[in-house]
Design a protein that fits this description.
Thiol Ester Dehydrase, Chain A; about 140 residues; about 40% strand; single chain
């Protein structure tokens, strides 16, 4: 894929804090929603992963807040995988208003855990190669 995967979200009033800003924890929910939407678009389901005895795990998350979001704002939440070597991968995400203003940048380190052994699998790319119907969503 040339452009990162993206999903549109509308900020709901109940997600805001007393200042009227999107609550800081909700940014994580938006990022998680985009990641699971990407998996679904790539043909990966939770049932497939559980059936294989694995599950994705977040190991580190960093959020850089840049502009406020208010109730009613529409945002696009992107999601792109970056692969190195080893047991982990990076996920780079941007929350951007429809006018192009970046509201937040989220970077994370993830892996795929063997649910029986409770350890990361040696090569998470292989898991996605086995279960996904469209590897382009993973940049593979």
């Amino acid at each position: 894929m040339s452009e990162p995967y993206s999903v549109r979200v509308t900020v709901r009033g109940y997600e805001t804090d007393v200042q009227g800003h999107l609550n800081q924890a909700v940014y994580l929910n938006y990022a998680e929603h985009a990641r699971w939407s990407l998996l679904q678009a790539a043909g990966v389901t939770q049932a497939q992963l559980r059936g294989r005895g694995v599950g994705p795990v977040a190991l580190e998350t960093t959020i850089r807040y840049q502009r406020e979001l208010l109730a009613g704002d529409e945002v696009d939440v992107t999601c792109a995988f970056e692969w190195g070597t080893g047991k982990t991968f990076r996920i780079v995400q941007t929350i951007r208003k429809t006018d192009g203003t970046v509201a937040a940048e989220i970077t994370g380190v993830g892996g795929v855990m063997d649910l029986k052994e409770r350890k990361l699998v040696a090569d998470p790319r292989e898991v996605f190669k086995e279960v996904a119907t469209d590897l382009s969503f993973f940049g593979l």
